[in-house]
Amino acid sequence: MDNSKRGYLPIDTGISLNKDDSKSISGYVFTLNDGAVSWKSSKQATVAYSLTEAEYIAAKEAVSMKKFLTELGVVPSIEGAVPLLCDNIGAIAQFSSVNTSIIFHLLFFCSCLPCGHIYGLSCIKKWLQQKGSLGKCPQCNKKCTLKGVRVLYASRLHAVDEELQKKIRSLESKRFSLEKECSDWCKKEVEWRRREAELHKQVEHLKERITCVEGSLSEMQSRSSGHIFGSNIDSKLGRREYANAFVLQKEFQIDGARLFDVDSNGENLMIARRLAGMGGQHMLTKISLLPPHEREDILLPASMKTIKDLHVSPHERVILLASLGKKLSVLSAENNHTVLTYDLPTVPWSCSWDPNNSHYMYAGLQNGMVLQFDGRQTTRPVECMTGLTGNPIHTVCSLSADPTLSAGVRSVLSASSVGLCHWNFGSGEERPCLVPESENQGICISLACGDRNDDIVASFRPKLETIGDMAASQVPLTPPVTEQAVEGSHVLYRRVGSRYQKLGASCAKVSGIRLPKSAIIDRGNQNPLFASGDEATMELVLQELPSLNVAQRVKSLNGPIRDVRYTRLLNTGLLGCLSDDNLQICSTKLQ
C-alpha cells in the first residue's frame, strides 16, 4: 500500500502538568497524504497515574478520527491500522501486546487535597482523622477536611471491543430467552401431569359407573316380567307396547320437592325443594342415579326465594334457575357454585336453554315478556320482546333452527293462559305471533315439546264464566287450598318451520287451579309418547302420538303429579314423575 495514502498520528502527553487537578495535557497531529488535517492540545478529562495511561487516553483520538473519515467517504482508501508515532516505552510495549483488552490495575488509591497536593488516600485519611477539626495539608498547612479529599482516577480502564460486546449482549439475550422458554415448558409439563392424573381418575370413575349401570340394567330386566306398572287400554297396541313399557326402577322420598330435572351427563337428579320450618329454606338436592344413590343438599341464597322453573343444560353440566326473587341464575352441577346471575325487571315464571347454542338462554316473565340472554354478556339480556298480553309466560321452549329463517334468528315457543306464541329473536320483529287454533281452546295450562320440536302438545282447561265485562281468564298467582279436577283437553300440533297445524285433541281430567308439567318422549324409530297427569285417578298417562291413544298408565303414590321429565341414559329411557314428596323413576329399553 502507498504510504502517502495512509494516516499518521503523532501523539505526546505530559503527566500531571496541572498542579490544581493533576490532569495531563494531550497533544496530537493527524496527518493524511503528508498533510496535517487535525491537531489538538488540551487537558485530559481523566486523571492518569502514569505516562502509559496518558498516552492511551491521547491515542483514542485515532480511533474516532478513522471512523469519522471512513463514514464521510472523503478518503475511502483508508484501511487497516493507523500508525501511531509515540515515544513512551511503556505505551509501545503495551501496544505490542497480543491482548485485545487492556486493563490497568492501580496499586494504591491516590487522592488530591483542595490545595492541589497529592497523597495516598489511606494516609491522608488517617492524618486528617488524627487532627480532627484542626486538620491541615502536611506540605502547605492549609486547612483541610475529609470532605475536601478527591480521588484522582478510575479504578479500571478498559479498551472495549464493541463487536465483542454486541456478541455478549446477543448471547445474554438468547440465554434469557432460552431460560424463559425452559421455564414455560416446565410449567406446561406440570400442568400436563396434573391433567393426566385427573383424566386417570375420571376414567376409573367412569369404569365404576359403567359397572353399576350394567348391574342395574340386568337387575331391571330380570324383574321386568312381574313389575310392569299400568295397563294398555288399546288392545291393538297391547302386544306391541308391552315389551317396551316403562318399568318402575326406583322411588325416592323427598320432603318439600317442587320441581326436578335429570343431569344425564352426571347421572344425577336435580330437585328443587322448600323445607318446612327453618324459615322455609330453599335448596337443591342432588341424588345419584347409581347405587347407593348418594344425596347432597345445596343451600340457595335467600334472595332467590322460591324456584319457579329449572333446566339442566343439554350441552354441559350447568343448571338454569328461574326464581321469585326476580333472578335468573346459572349453577354449576359439578362444584355447586353459582356461575352467573341476572337481575330481572319482574318475576320469571319459566326458563329454557337453547338446544342449538350453549351460550343462549331464555326467560318468560310474569308481565308477558320473553328475554334472551347470552352467557358471554353478564350484565343484561341480549334482546327483550313484549308479549301480546300481560299474562305470565308459564312455559318457554327453545326450538331447533329453522332453515327458512335468516342466519342468527332463534325461535322460541311460549305458553300463557291466552294460548301459544311463536317468537323470532334477532329478526327485528317487535311482537310474537299467536299459534292458530290455540286461542280458542280455553286456558292453556301446560306445554310439552319433543327433542326434535316436530310434535307439540298443549293442555287446556275451560275458561271461567265472565263477570260483568271482565273475563276471569287469568292464571291465579296464589292457588286455593283445595284442588279440583275439571274436564279439559290435550291438543296436538305439528310444527313445520314457523308454521303450526292442529292434528288432533283428546279429552282429559286436568287441574282446575294448578299449572302441571307434561313431557314428550322421543323413542327413536318408534312413535313418540305424550306423558301427563290424570287429576281424577292420580295416574301418569302415556299417550301415543299422533293418535293420542292411551298406551300405559303409571300409578302415582301420593296425590296429583307436579312434574314430569324424560331423558336418555346410554340405551335406556328414563321417565321421572314427581307427586308431592315422592319421585318415581321408570325406565324402558330403547331400540
From TrEMBL:
Localization per record: Nucleus, Nuclear body
**Can you name this protein?**
RING-type E3 ubiquitin transferase
Query: What region holds the E3 ubiquitin-protein ligase RFWD3-like WD40 domain?
Result: 255-586
| A GO biological process held by the record | interstrand cross-link repair
EC number(s) of the enzyme? 2.3.2.27
Main location per UniProt?
nucleus
Q: Which organism is it from?
A: Nicotiana tabacum
Q: What InterPro entries does the record tag this protein with?
A: RFWD3, WD40/YVTN_repeat-like_dom_sf, WD40_repeat_dom_sf, WD40_RFWD3, Znf_RING/FYVE/PHD
MF (Gene Ontology): ubiquitin protein ligase activity
* Annotated catalysed reactions: S-ubiquitinyl-[E2 ubiquitin-conjugating enzyme]-L-cysteine + [acceptor protein]-L-lysine = [E2 ubiquitin-conjugating enzyme]-L-cysteine + N(6)-ubiquitinyl-[acceptor protein]-L-lysine
Q: Name one GO cellular component term.
A: nuclear body
